[in-house]
User: Fold this.
Amino acid sequence: MIQQYANPARFNRLAATLMPWFAWPAGILIVVGLYFALFNSPPDYQQGDTVRIMYVHVPAAWMALFVYTSMALSSAVGLIWKHPLAHLSAQAAAPIGACFTFVCLLTGSLWGKPMWGTWWVWDARLTSVLILFFLYLGFMALQNAFDDPARGERSAAILAIIGFINVPIIKFSVDWWNTLHQPASVVKMSGPAIHSSMLIPLFMMGIGFTLYFCALLLLRMKTLMLARRARGMSMAQLHQQTAE
Amino acid sequence: MSALVLILRREMRLALRQIGDSAIIVLFFVLAAVLFPFGVGPEPNMLARMAPGVVWVTALLAAMLSFERLFTPDFEDGSLEQLALGPAPLEMVALAKAAAHWLTTGLPLMIAAPLIAVLYRLPDSGYGALMTTMALGTPTISLIGTVGAALTLGSRRGGVLLSLLVIPLIVPVLIFGTAAIDAAIGGFPVRQHLMLMGGFLLGALVLTPLATAAALRQALE
Assistant:
């Protein structure tokens, strides 16, 4: 099934079909979710209105981990089965993931200032997310560091798999260490510790961000494929000119 | 196993002929550490407080400088391909390279570390922990750095890129290394920090040769 979509034309057709199914719900969910988050959800009894930062911060953090996981998975698929689109998908996902991580760090910082009285603390959760950000940057830098693009994407794929070790560390950092960052309150055994009036907009934002990522990933993969083809064509043209 | 010893001997012989390369790394380590008192002022209590962190951070930076040339000469003159074609598994080659790197860089850094600690007036109770954490941490750094060196082999701007890849991965070693020394100075138990560092070392010992070998295969493909 997965090998079938190694054909770029077939993949493009699939992507074109799927795109509106990702893009429209993503737009609608984010707009409606933001409306609920900003205007139609209760302020926190301790944090007041600053709690509304959560509706961007938490989904961005989820996405930072989710995108990295998808990147590591497609890197593994690329290395093991040499699937031609797998490396492309990792390459397309990396900048998106880096942006989500940056948004997570930025909103966290803005939230930390009024709540903790500081933009930044060196606790385990914050530090491990910062390392995730550097891993994204390292992945992109490594990918572009070689004259042979194929070598770059294979090297970067190995790095993505090695760096995956950081993902569980981020997830469990709030349980393993005594951090200023609060422990998990949505996904836990005893059920979420958040009232549904806040949980519903949070999930809307989370699903919206995920669909937005899927749409953007397809778009970027298509762009990268076209860029690759354009480069191939100009190379061929150059070749022809020199031959004449 | 004999392959491991053979490669190690070859590496050591090459390193001893160019002993200056290791000496420069140690010199950088000492110089970088000496810079801090100029920057922050020579107040003894503050220097003593900073000592574990400065020793560890400068040791890491010095080690970063040494990884770039780990595989490059062998890659350029074709001996790496010979090693890959030979009967020894590439994982073994990777392990031998990391061991040679530790002997030529990690060990000298470890020997120089107490010197810097003296300059920073590290309290006497910290020296045991300093040497133990260095003994556990520098091999881990050598192993992880070997992966970075293999990943960036043949790239443009290898050295800076290598640091960008390796530094995030060795942050845990730094955290627990300095935490152990701080604990020893403060009279707290050191054991759990050392056990974690031992765990990192064992994990790296098992996993990094696989990653290095995979990266080398990509480089030679």
